[in-house]
Amino acid sequence: MLLAIDTATPQVGVAVGVDGAVVGRVELARGQRHAEALAPAIDYLLRATGVGLEQLAGIAVGIGPGLFTGLRVGVTTARVMAQVLRVPIVGIASLDLVAYPLRQTPRLLVPALDARRHEVFWAAYRAVPGGLQRVGDYSVGTPAELVAELAAHGEEALLAGDGALRYRSELEAVDRVELAGPEFAAPSAGALIELAHARFEREEFSKPTEIVPLYLRRSDAEIEWDRKPA
Amino acid sequence: MVNAQWAAGELVLGIETSCDETAAAVVADGREIYSSIVSSQVDLHARFGGVVPEIASRAHLELINVVVAEALVEAGCDFGDLHAVAACHGPGLAGALLVGVSAAKAVALCRAIPYVGVNHLEAHLQAAWLDEPELAPPLAVLIASGGHTMIVIVESRGHYRVVGQTVDDAAGEAFDKVARFLGLGYPGGPAIDAVAESGDPGAVRFPRPMAGDGFDFSFSGLKTAVVQFVRRNPDVPVADVAASFQEAVVDVLSTKLFAAAHAAGARTLVLGGGVAANRSLRARVTDLAAAVGHRAYLPGPALCTDNAAMIAATGWFRLHSDGPTPLNGGATPGLRLPVVG
Ligand SMILES: [Zn+2]
Question: Which of B17, B62, B109 should we substitute to test contact with A (largest number of A Cβ atoms within 10 Å)?
């Protein structure tokens, strides 16, 4: 039995699953209230599914890239739960969790999450037998930079995620680009159960202290510091 | 698992992540400290001359598991022995607070024990009882640190009246800014304290801001006065400037503390917060108290500066007075001290 948590976007997503199948899930798209919503959501889900904490064999968590505030809540909760319950933990990129439910497409698949400050986090994927393969790095940049990358690929692409939806007009102006609907706006907690299950099967898990968010951006102070003339 | 001697005691795990210290502690019955671990991030922030919120938040997340584990190991107990878990939920840096609150709620959820969100300022006030359980109110308490500067009258344990606070910079902030300007490094409090030892506190008469003006403080004008003085008088030794600046701060803090105590009829004075570790301030408050027949109570630096033992002790106190905090409780960066009319 696995517990999955993703808080990389305004959504708070929690799921429990067994053998890669979701037993139950809670996804709250209420925005910016991760610290308030997460613990009660886990508590409710475990009660509603009748899953006891002692049955959990592992914790899976979305590590971003995404909103720093949300990630801190989700990753801290997952790390400390794994520590208290003495179970292993798996961290999976939240962009993978946006892409995974759309893996049947033959097109280039590009999830883009809102990074605020007129930027998005994105990565590109292609379908391979049994799943998805990421082609390129996890990136952060302006919608214009994403547009340039899509144009460079020059092929049919399917975009998903709240970042893609927010900058829809700019992105849809690119040839042969289509956007998935709002139901694919946030990382899927169900996808996290499936992907994490495979990782646990291969025993590719970590200790709680090894799981940190994928920030992709440094703090403003560090950026400013490096800009200063010597 | 737990030692037999503690079987009757209620162990509370406290977690503090409001600023730049990642701390965890185990305290029994709100009184006895079994462990108190503080991991300071000073080195991470030093080159910026102050705490960088995003760096602090990231460091808390990376340190939290290890600090909590150390607190349990040093106390000789396990998560299963805990009666409750408390975390500072404000005031403080938003992202930093969320790490401690999330960690505490995760422990509470996994062990089915109460969670208590603790006010950081109240914890500074309650810290006094950890060293001195017999402390009898009313108390006049000065909390001075990099984040806050206030005088609080403690009417009884749990009942507070804020009678004065800073209108601009906190006292510790003034130390940081002046130390940085004088090239003395970060954090400024210990740096100025050290240099001032060889300086003449009477060398320069800096202004005493808002001296006759109730119990509120203002430190930004004093910082400006130091800057202007040094620009006009570059030859005056740094040690003299530092000592004179420190003298002005100590003068204002101690004078207002005693005036507030007098007005409230409190004969016991207490210091808390990082600035309470300043040797000149401690000496002045001790001397003034002796002169007027008051009692000065100065907890050791480990209890004055940010720590989690004070969070655990306050969590235990609030659990018994108000009950647990619901698991949907968040963090409040601008949280105020709970006061009574
Ligand atoms: Zn403090």
Answer: B109
> What pLDDT digit, counting tens, does each position of A118-134 carry?
999 999 999 999 889 99
Residue A53 touches chain B, beta carbons under 8 Å: yes
Nearest Cα to Cα of residue B86 among B273, B304, B316: B316
Can A2-94+187-227 and A95-184 be said to share one CATH topology? Answer: yes
pLDDT digits (tens, 9 = 90+) for B70-99: 999 999 999 999 999 999 999 999 999 999
CA distance A5 to A78: 7
Give me the architecture of the A95-184 domain, per CATH: 2-Layer Sandwich (3.30)
**pLDDT average, residue stretch A33-47:** 95
* Those residues with Cβ within 8 angstroms of residue A112's Cβ, 6 or more apart along the chain or in another chain: A120, A121, A122, A146, A159, A160, A161, A163, A164, A167, A171
Q: Which residues surround ligand 1, an ion (CB under 5 A)?
A: B 145, 306
Note the pTM of the prediction, 2 decimals. Answer: 0.95
| Contact state of A84 with B106 under an 8 Å Cβ cutoff | yes
User: So what's the ipTM on this one?
Assistant: 0.96
DSSP output for B187-246: SHHHHHHHHHTTS-TTSS----TTTTSTT-B--HHHHHHHHHHHHH-TTS-HHHHHHHHH
Instruction: Band the pLDDT of B209: cuts 50, 70, 90.
Output: confident
Q: Nearest chain A Cα to B100, which residue? A: A76
Give dist(CA A102, CA A120) in Å, integer: 19
Closest-CA distance, A173 to chain B, in angstroms, reads 36
B100, B15 contact by CB (below 8 A): yes
Q: Count Cα atoms within 13 angstroms, Cβ side, for B69.
A: 15
CATH homologous superfamily, domain A2-94+187-227: ATPase, nucleotide binding domain (3.30.420.40)
A106 has pLDDT over 60 = yes
How far B107 CA lies from chain A's nearest CA (Å)? Answer: 7
- Kindly report the backbone phi and psi dihedral angles of residue A161, in degrees, each rounded to the nearest multiple of 5, phi listed first: 105, 160
B78 touches B7 (CB < 8 A): no
A84 touches chain B (CB under 8 A): yes
Asked whether the CA dihedral A37, A41, A43, A44 is positive or negative, the reply is: positive
What is the CA(B42)–ligand 1 centre distance, in A? Answer: 15
**Domain extents for chain A?**
2-94+187-227, 95-184
| A84/B58 touch (CB, cutoff 8 Å), yes or no | no
- Choose among A38, A80, A219: nearest Cβ to B107: A80
Q: Which of B15, B65, B335 to mutate to test the interface with A (most CBs of A within 10 A)?
A: B65
Cβ of A40 and B327 within 8 Å?
A: yes
How far is C-alpha A122 from the chain's CA centre? 11
- Give the mean pLDDT of B186-210: 94
